[in-house]
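Please, structure for the following, as tokens.
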Amino acid sequence: MTAPAWLDNVSFNADGLIPAIAQDKQSGRVLMMAWMNAEALTLTAERKEAIYFSRSRSRLWHKGETSGHTQQVHDIYLDCDADVIILTVTQIGGIACHTGRESCFYRRLDTDSDTPTWESVDPVLKDPNDIYNTSTATETHTATPETTHAKAHSDTHSSDHTAILTELDAVLAERKAADPDSSYVASLYAKGLNKILEKVGEESVESIIAAKDLAANKDDSDARHELIYETADVWFHSLVAISWFDIPSDAVLNELARRFGLSGIEEKAARSKG
């Protein structure tokens, strides 16, 4: 594809990318920020729909390809330094954020407090589990950059992680008898233990690759997020595997609690005696 002449006026960074800010045409509110390469920007201009570039997956990302919340592009603006793009858009579905909110910028810093904290000021317009056809916040997989983005920035409001695991146990148990077409986990159970274990191995390899990438780019926030959600995938699929055998997650927590306070040498010795 021959690059259009107008791209010559755009200053991409060393990685060939430029930040793109999506702004609602009617309200003027900033909805989200993502990255574009030359191809994404060209296709956005041609199709009048927002197409971004996913740095974590190194491929184009058509906004709304998973959620259906596409962005109709009206105008494309370039700033004075030619290194930032603003898109004026109509957000289909009224939801730009993976959390089910209108805007990704839904946290406001409460500076009136003696100890400023971030507070959520936008309501969730639609449950993200319904948007991405998942049954729990953790029941996601790396199908597209859009679901990847959701995992990397998952919005969990509960501080009781043990309760989350208990709820997840119940969901996993329920999925065993569910229609395979009703959820990702139900489809895994329908395919059998070997498929589940294959996913554990696959996600483990991806977490290793993510860790290597972060080791090579320690200041890269995207690489950090990548390792976090790839590790979450390993944990999640491991829970699916033990649930196959009706082993609850608290059995693993109890084993970790038993080990807590023991030195590695003592723990290994105790294991070998058993």
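Residues 135-143, 151-159 have pLDDT under 50 and may be disordered. Residues 52 and 61 are 5 Å apart (CA to CA).
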